[in-house]
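User: Can you predict the 3D structure for this chain?
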Amino acid sequence: MEEQNYRPKSHGYLLFAGVIMPAISITVEASTHFCAGIFFDPIPTTWHLLLVIFVPLAQLQVWFALRRERPDQLRLAGFINAIVIGISIFYSIVYLSILPLALVTVLIGLGFLPLAPYFSLVAALMMRHKLNQIAAIAPPKTFTIKKRGLVVGLGVTLVLVGIIELPATLTRIGMQKAASDSPQTRAEGIRFLRTFGNKDALLRSCYKQSGLATDLFGYAFLLGKPVTPAEAQKIYYRVTGETFDSSLPPERAGGGRLVPQDTVDFDADQGGRRIKRKLKGLSLANSKLEASGCVPSLHGCSHVPHGTRHTEFRSMDDR
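Assistant: Here is the predicted structure, written as structure tokens:
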């Protein structure tokens, strides 16, 4: 009787911690970019989004497998459970820097979002334990349930995350070289970026950063001397031959906030010396240049009015 009462409670926790919590966290971050705007962007690319979406979907499949308690149907559940454990460990490390703040703000609800990877990890480990219990009923145990299967699943996750993070990591390495004080190292860094760098990652670094992304390996190159957005802008020009503001801004810049790809609503450098990106709804309506000066003649110098240039811009509201 005790086992029967324990099982529904356990399944309810696994559903909440392994499926519901990650799904809520992903939905909130993907729609509001709350963490990206304050700390770092946990899902900087579409591949990262697909990676995190896999977690609640896989956990749900494993949850149903546990409910059925069929030892002959645990092969797939064991494999995807190992991958979920790897992804949860990865994002637990990513969120480690803001874990104390998450624990403080958990009382007002915000702390549950960065705690989702830890809930997911605990749920995945509990599911792993229950899968082993079910598999023990009908030996031989499926390979994916064994410890070797767990190691293989973690290895697959490591390779998958490495492939996703590789462009950003190589770009960060090249930028660190290109920002060196040594002319030779800077030249090597520019050549490295032209060969292995990712243009989107390089362009994103030209904008104001609010924190670190998911590139854990590349983080080691930031411990010494981080590359500032101003330095990244110079590097971008040397690598591409174009100024960073002549290219379409990345979808997420300035701390993860979304930036329209065609135009922007506000120019942060308005009133400065440089002309930056085109403002939304702004177009050139008329431009006129009038020349003037002194014209020599037999009677001396004939003065004409000093030249002025008239430029008229028109916004969408004036049409």
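Residues 2-145 form one domain. The chain has three domains: 2-145, 167-246, 283-318.
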